[in-house]
Amino acid sequence: MKHKLARAMEVIAKHEEKERNELFSDLPSRYMFLANFGPVSGIKQEQVISFFQKQDGFERVITPRNNRPYLVLQFSTPETASSCHAKLHTTTVDEWSDKVILLFYAKSAPAQDESYKSIPGLILIPDFITPEQELHIYQQIQSSEPSFELLNLRSVKHWGYKFNYHTNHVDPGKIEQLPPFSDEIIESVMQLGKVESRPDQLTVNVYEPGAGIPSHVETHSDFEDGVISLSLLSQTVMNFKHPDGESFEVLLPPRSLLIMTKEARFLWSHGIPARKTDLIDGALVERKKRVSLTFRKVRASPCNCPYHAQCDSWLSTPVGTKEHNTKIEDKFVKEIYDTIAPHFSDTRHKPWPKINTFLEGLPAGSLVCDVGSGNGKYLGTNPNIVKIGNDQSLKLIEIARERGFEVNACNNLYIPYRSSLFDVVLSIAVVHHFSTVDHRIQALKELTRILRPGGKLLVYVWAMEQEAGKRKFGQQDIMVPWHMEKLKYDPNEHAQEEKEVEKHEKKFMVYQRYYHVFRKGELKELVEGLPGMVVEEEGFDHANWTVIARKC
């Protein structure tokens, strides 16, 4: 235990960048470090709060900066902190898998996490309006046309232009002019000099307690730089996430103004988790009704920002003809899979049961073409059929060939086989990597072209509608990060850390892959639109929409 205590103090001192005698007090104080209970511990702060609320004088949990592997407990007096220390220090907690509680008196409260201020272009202005202005604006919103549109636990209305949540784009026709109450707000914003273009679109959301909005980046092709959000009635916590996985929680108080420009607007995604409480200043706070006013300037020309992975204007720019990849398909699909091929292959071993059953049920001698075969996961099933793999990643082809499979290089947009050749064609997790509707249709056309009459096509694509507890998508065209540990694939990168902080300290290379996630019925509709194809079965498997179709 002596070594464990010394190591815990060493970790805290390292992160605080101070000597131990500057941090720790031999005498009781109101503040105590709780070691090994930071964000990487697997124990939520809500659980920590609930546990320590049973101790006399406990006031709150303070979260140090930068997701550090410890927390700070604040008590009303040094005496109540001392009482808690005497009861709990070096004890274990059954419901936390016998995790040991290590408490150290702190000389003072550490600085709280305000690192979100490092997000370039993010500006938060508290008390931008007065309580009287807040009430007036809310009353005007309630009494003004148009009427509210009801969504899931929130109501929305638009002025200037309507944002269509089904297409994730602005409808082109102008609707109601901006309401008079917005003029004063816009004038005050423009005087700040933080945004260049005067907003001409307003969206008002009324959030009921428990409501949220999925994480998203405001559509590049629809709006210019400068997204402005004014909060009314109550506070909430908004999450900001960088494509490399770094994230911050930002408290938006009532009457505060949030301005997103540059990276904050174009690169970082933002969203509000759907929950009924927020952790604010170390205490659980129940949400109340909240109103947000979002002002934006509708774009008149394509976006030319440098953040290509998030820019739908750039993503949809084709290169050459329909038989050639778009820029996004080259840079964020082909190049990425060549880069991550060994790591990707290590995570792809066992065939999914339904696909395996489909292949095992084929008649002996069937000729099967797997387009997008990757490391050959499905080429090793059913020895009684003939299987040919195909992929555009040369690195994955090398891996599959090393396993003894027959695999060729090809692009799904132009498959180098004669028409009506194969009994069965597989497309597992491929079509969702094409960035335009034309390319998704072209890919499906090629799959059906090489299929013989009477042959069957099996297609799997990622689903927009995920299972409970799985990831949620705020839009259909997304970038999905692939995290590859530097330690595992670049052993000379840096030395190993001690076990307590190893998980927290590991560094990752993050690679972004493009996906178009399909809504229910979308894949079926595309396949049914192909000449001579009849959909025999539509299903949902492993968070994918699936279709089995027959060629007439």
TrEMBL record:
Coiled coil spans: none
Biological process (GO), any one: tRNA methylation
PROSITE patterns registered for this protein in UniProt: FE2OG_OXY (PS51471)
Keywords from the named record: Methyltransferase, RNA-binding, Transferase, Zinc
All residue ranges annotated as the Fe2OG dioxygenase domain in the record: 198-299
A UniProt-annotated Pfam family: Methyltransf_11
One Gene Ontology term of the molecular function aspect: tRNA binding
CDD domains associated with the record: AdoMet_MTases
Entry superkingdom: Eukaryota
UniProt KW S-adenosyl-L-methionine keyword: no
Protein name: Fe2OG dioxygenase domain-containing protein
Organism: Arcella intermedia
Lineage: Eukaryota, Amoebozoa, Tubulinea, Elardia, Arcellinida
